[in-house]
Amino acid sequence: MIVTTEKLTKRYGDRAVVDEVSLSVRRGEVYGFLGPNGAGKTTTIRMLLGLVKPTGGTARVLGEAPGTPKALLRVGSLIEGPGFYPYLSGRDNLRVHAARRGLARSHVEAALEQVDLVGAAGQGFRRYSLGMKQRLGVAAALLGRPELLILDEPTNGLDPAGMADMRDLVRALTAQGQTVLLSSHLLGEVEEICDRVGVIANGRLVAESTVEQLRGDTVLLVRADPVEKAHVLIEGSSLHGDVLHVREADAASLVRTLVQADVDVREVRPLLRTLEEVFFEMTGAA
Amino acid sequence: MGSVMDTVMGSVMGTVKAELLRLWKWPATWVLTGVWLVMTLTFGYVFNYLALSGGTNTRDLSQQQLIGSMQPENAGAAVVRGLPMFGGAIVLVLAALAVGSGYGWGTWKTTLTAGPRRVSAMAGTLGALAVVVVVLVALTFVVDLGAAIAVASLEDWGWSLPGWSAVEAVGASLLIAAMWTAFGVFLGVATRGPALAVGLGLMWAVVAENLLRGVGSLLGPVESLTGVLPGGSAGNLAGAVGGSGAPGVLNDLSGTTAALFLLGYVVFFAGAATLLKVRRDLV
Ligand SMILES: Nc1ncnc2c1ncn2[C@@H]1O[C@H](COP(=O)(O)OP(=O)(O)OP(=O)(O)O)[C@@H](O)[C@H]1O
Ligand SMILES: [Mg+2]
């Protein structure tokens, strides 16, 4: 395990902003940390980096206590937007960061190349566009090839092409054996690249699984005539307008039942809920 | 144990290097340094020289005093004279800006997640600012000495280079500047921003202590207190090493007492800032 938390909790006053979160990130995977605005993603990540002290529970990062040099030197991070000196160029900002991390300057150019910022590296950070600032933040996280990357909403401010680049970059990183924990409030954006996801809402981890598991069992959509009669016949079905939704059913036996009862079956197909719908159900319910 | 020390020293050195790099390229460093050098030249030499050569001496100084203050051998006193109030205010502003801005820019977040412990990060910041202070004081001495030599040559005075007393004066200048720097660092950390830190610092250095000194002339206990406040201690040390005749310079305490108070303030401000930095969440 690269990251584990055990009932990790942060209270501000009497409000638990992060509430007994127990999650785990495995070596080499891309872990999507998902949740709507204000769910507690950034606060959890801050605790993993030692910026915020938990009020309860524990966390281990690469087997170490969060925020210690042993952990931090092996983690690259970008938390809630990049933090750089506005008057320095992108390159100088990375040089300053490399010095803090005890890394040689040669790492700077490699990181700039990875995020495609070599051309603008001499420009003042102040004059960067939102997307360029974000990419510089990712470059800082990449410096020195840390084992674990913690990226808090890395695609914030990126255009669709930039988002695609970011996804490619994350894929390339895992191909090199790096582990990535990335947060997002847009499921569709990370669905393709995440091996596993943790869903947080109102400070509580409401699910942690693979994307497929998260989608859950397939639901059958049945269009039949008369639909009310079919609804009565099939146990556990639910009526949605003029169609039925049936959970965990065998299509063949379902059709046989309906036909034998003289119900016309016009359509039976698996209803693929989008992850977005699942997400909405979960986080809305919590 | 040895390797633990090595690691700690290594990360402090890395942080000092990083901080020096960004302070060196920071326009504010140069603007404030420039303002200070212009001020020390103007008030230490330009006005005095004009008063001397134009005969318009309205500052209650005898010709002899004017000449004495501009002698190259008194360059050390010229440096220390300006530090208790104006020079101090400038290094305080520099330190408060350097530390306070990091909260708004988000650079503290980047710094504290880079690797070194928070204590090392603070030690690195304080170390880099110490380097800046040393360079600033050395630069002031060189500029003042240069101006003094220029005046002495123009006027054909017989002059000699500064002696031991200049070392004392420069040492006192360093201690005074270090105290104001630590004060600025403390304010920057405590208020978590540049604006309030600079505002409060200037209020204290330029206004509050002067007001208290005014009250002090009416109330005895307040008067003895003002002598040992940060600005008061700085003023007394400057007075004790020959830097008389400038705003904020006092002559109520012995040099040793004043120096010990200043040292105490340096330790207190730097320690309190570090403690706050280590203890508080960074959000
Ligand atoms: N220092 C603080 N004091 C009080 N409340 C806080 C503090 N920091 C965060 N919160 C609250 O904690 C909650 C979670 O915040 P957090 O930034 O972790 O959410 P998030 O999941 O990252 O949201 P987003 O997607 O908008 O970035 C929010 O309601 C926020 O108001
Ligand atoms: Mg967030």
UniProtKB/TrEMBL annotation, chain A:
Source domain of life: Bacteria
SUPFAM superfamilies noted in UniProt: P-loop containing nucleoside triphosphate hydrolases
Molecular function via GO: ATP binding; ATP hydrolysis activity
UniProt keyword annotation of Nucleotide-binding present: yes
Keyword terms of this UniProt record: ATP-binding, Nucleotide-binding, Transport
Gene3D superfamilies associated with the record: P-loop containing nucleotide triphosphate hydrolases (3.40.50.300)
Domain ABC transporter residue range list: 3-227
SMART domains: AAA (SM00382)
InterPro entries per record: AAA+_ATPase, ABC_transporter-like_ATP-bd, ABC_transporter-like_CS, P-loop_NTPase
Family of the protein in this entry: Belongs to the ABC transporter superfamily.
Record-given protein name: ABC-2 type transport system ATP-binding protein
Automatic annotation (TrEMBL), chain B:
Signal peptide: none
Domain of life: Bacteria
Annotated TM spans: 30-52, 85-105, 126-152, 164-187, 194-212, 258-276
Keywords per UniProt: Membrane, Transmembrane, Transmembrane helix
Name this protein carries in UniProt: ABC-2 family transporter protein
Organism of derivation: Lentzea jiangxiensis
